[in-house]
Amino acid sequence: ILLGMLSYFFIFALLTGGMNLAIDATAGERERGSLEPLLCLPVSREQLIVGKILAACLFMALSLSLSLVSFYVTLQFVPLERLGMTPNFGPLVVLTAFFLLVPFTLLGAALMTLVASFTRSYKEAQTWLSAVLLAPTLPILIVSILQVRPSLELMLIPSLSQHLLLNGLIRNEPVNLLHATVSASATLALGAALTWACARLYRRESLLG
């Protein structure tokens, strides 16, 4: 259970790192009345929305980095040995965990941008995205209850695949490169599909209404 909470904590920190930017770049722009002038700039709408999503990705990656480093530093001051526990969260684990989780930034940024684009105000977007933040917990909760072992098929499910890979990493198990590759590819592919959906959405004039 503790390992499941740890993986969710890092994914949650990743998502919250870019949530406000995703809201401000969509519902915030609409609420301030600056969306229409922005879309009239001499740049394609597709490039504009991709830029917004990539900016959110950057903030998410920074939030993930800070969370991982903060957790590592905190462990240095916790006497886990007295509790009969051996921490396996050194610098190499921190770096590996970052690369296992960072593909989720594109999926998270695109999903939040897409959802926030349908809202009319900052407050409404916050309400909807609060529900989006809970979405990654569902597959993690299911696998925690059923005690599922990592498999190639499960690596196709975002958040669940990162959860399983991170759990194995913390248990000092060698990272399965095939599993890691499939996890990253599936997560990035879904993120790219959601980015494409955002680009299609911003072609509509009704978006300004």
Q: Mind explaining what this structure looks like?
A:
It is a single chain. By secondary structure, the chain is an all-alpha fold. It has one domain (2-208). Helices cover 72% and strands 0% of the residues. It is built from 9 helices and no strands. The protein has helices at residues 2-32, 35-39, 45-75, 91-101, 104-117, 122-134, 137-146, 160-170, 177-201. Helix 3 (45-75) runs antiparallel to helix 4 and helix 3 packs antiparallel against helix 9 (177-201). The N and C termini lie far apart (46 Å).
List the helices and strands and how they pair.
Layout: H1 2-32, H2 35-39, H3 45-75, H4 91-101, H5 104-117, H6 122-134, H7 137-146, H8 160-170, H9 177-201
Helix pairs in contact: 1-3, 1-5, 1-6, 1-8, 3-4, 3-5, 3-9, 4-8, 5-6, 5-9
Summarize the structure.
Helices cover 72% and strands 0% of the residues.
Mean pLDDT, to the nearest integer, reads: 86
Oligomeric composition of the shown chains = single chain
Low-confidence stretches: none
Question: How many strands?
Answer: 0
Biggest sheet layout: none
Q: Tell me roughly what share of residues is in helical segments.
A: over 70%
Q: Spell out the helices and strands N to C.
A: HHHHHHHHH
Number of domains: 1
